[in-house]
Amino acid sequence: MSKLAIRGGTPVRNQAWPQWPVHGEAEKKQLLEAFEAGNWGGFPFPQPKTRELGEAFAAYQDASYGAACANGSISLEICLVAAGIVAGDEVIVPATTWIATGAAPIRVNAVPVFVDVDPENYCIDCDAVEAAITPRTRAIIPVHLGSSIADLDRLVEICQKHDLILLEDCAHAHGSKWRRKGVGSWGDFGSFSFQSSKILTSGEGGLITTNDEQLHQKVQSLINCGRKDDGYDTFEGQLLGYNARMTEFQAGVMLAQLARLEELTRKKEENVHYLTHRMAAVGGLYAVRRDVRETRRGIYQFIWKYQAEEFKGLHRDRFLEALEAEGIELDGMFYPPMPFHPLFNARSAEWPMLRERYGDGIQAPETLRKFSFPVGAKFAQEEGIWMHYPYLLAEKADLDDIVSAVAKIKSNVDELL
Ligand SMILES: Cc1ncc(COP(=O)(O)O)c(C=O)c1O
User: Fold this and answer.
1) Residue 68 pLDDT > 70, yes or no?
2) Which of 1-10, 137-146, 319-328 is predicted with the least confidence, judged by mean pLDDT?
3) Is 72 in the pocket of ligand 1 (CB under 6 A)?
4) With a 6 A CB cut-off, is 122 part of the ligand 1 pocket?
5) Mean pLDDT of 232-261
6) Ligand 1 in contact with 101 (CB < 6 A)?
7) Topology of domain 25-259, per CATH?
8) Best of 77, 97, 98 for a ligand 1 pocket test (most atoms within 8 Å of beta carbon)
9) How would you classify the pairing of strands 294-296 and 189-193?
10) How far is the CA of 282 from the centre of ligand 1 (A)?
């Protein structure tokens, strides 16, 4: 008789996992306060809760200034505009990320230059970054992916050497610290997302950190339709802005969420530590490398490396189906290399600056054929496994179920071959 649930056996687990997002009375109180105050929107900008959030979040990440905004996509674009990136400038981005990282340069008529990721932690490969620099390069957008932090020492050095803007995409890294200093405070800007899947959430939302007062003023102006209001726009001239303001409801929820960050991070770090050790004893699923300089990890999702050889060659996707049947649902291909993502259809007819490097567009067949991201492709197709936040907040006994399920599949893998 089969043992594996996918073949009709009894699943390891059928209880629910912890609820996400974590929320409670504090969020309700904030929402009610915003409701009763009557200043629901974000204008004039910033409203009290939005201002408080900008300041508190920036301080948490060790940055001097913070400006909350509508989401973590527009925030990237606003940073590029504030930095003076213009048509034809090149912006280096990792191939492995959500499409927002590569779409931001396109939307300011710049040219994204995709580079592969590091096989140890799937963050941007700094050697590849150096190799991709040309006289047109103006900025680098590393992504602190999943649970890891890109090599900020190297990136800061590269940016200083070549006079480049460093924009950290911290959409996955609230609370993360590199050498005890918050991410988003190392470069010219940090960009955070509060979209509903993120470490902290107000449904939608974003925030831009910086240590430069002028850049902060520009960012605030850009968020607020280019206004030159007192207090945040002493620079020359006027910018063509956006309405990317956050509402007071979102800012209130985020203030309550921010107060939870310390406790959430502690629990996730503890759980990841426990799981990493238990899983290593089973074999087959290994944690991404943790650099000693990653002194604190916020952990959006935890990334595992699947080693098919240890499951007699079973493909990761088949393993994940079997795991799901055992009551544990994890993700395999979370991010295909970005140029291959179905949503990343950037055509030169609409974005003419792409033509010189990418012909008819990033997804033109002859362009796609030229891309090669062996590490990112292997990660997406064979090796990477993403563990969602609810699992990371579970109790030890629940985590033991995950380990038991993996061990069960491993010892009965013949049923799947
Ligand atoms: C790496 C990365 N950058 C940027 C974003 C964009 O954030 P948002 O969804 O708030 O626009 C996301 C969100 O999914 C992301 O994962």
Assistant:
1) yes
2) 1-10
3) yes
4) no
5) 92
6) yes
7) Aspartate Aminotransferase; domain 2 (3.40.640)
8) 98
9) unpaired
10) 34
Catalytic residue positions?
198
Q: How far is the CA of 94 from the centre of ligand 1 (A)?
A: 14
The string of pLDDT tens digits covering residues 187-207 is 999 999 999 999 999 999 999
Q: Is 220 exposed, middle or buried (0-12, 13-18, 19+ CB in 10 A)?
A: buried
Residue 168 three-state SS: strand
**Tokens (6 digits) for 395:** 């109790």
Is the pLDDT at 51 greater than 70, yes or no? yes
- By CB atoms closer than 10 A (0-12, 13-18, 19+), residue 130 is middle
CA pair distance 143, 149, nearest whole angstrom: 8
Atom of ligand 1 minimally distant from the CA of 145:
1
Strands 177-178 and 165-169 come out as unpaired
| Ligand 1: centre distance to CA 313 (Å) | 34
Cβ atoms of residues 124 and 376 within 8 Å:
no
Domain ranges of the chain: 25-259
pLDDT tens per residue across span 306-316: 999 999 999 99
How many CB atoms within 10 Å of residue 283? 13
**Burial category of 127 from C-beta neighbours within 10 Å (exposed 0-12, middle 13-18, buried 19 and up):** exposed
Q: What is the atom index within ligand 1 of the atom nearest the CA of 204?
A: 10
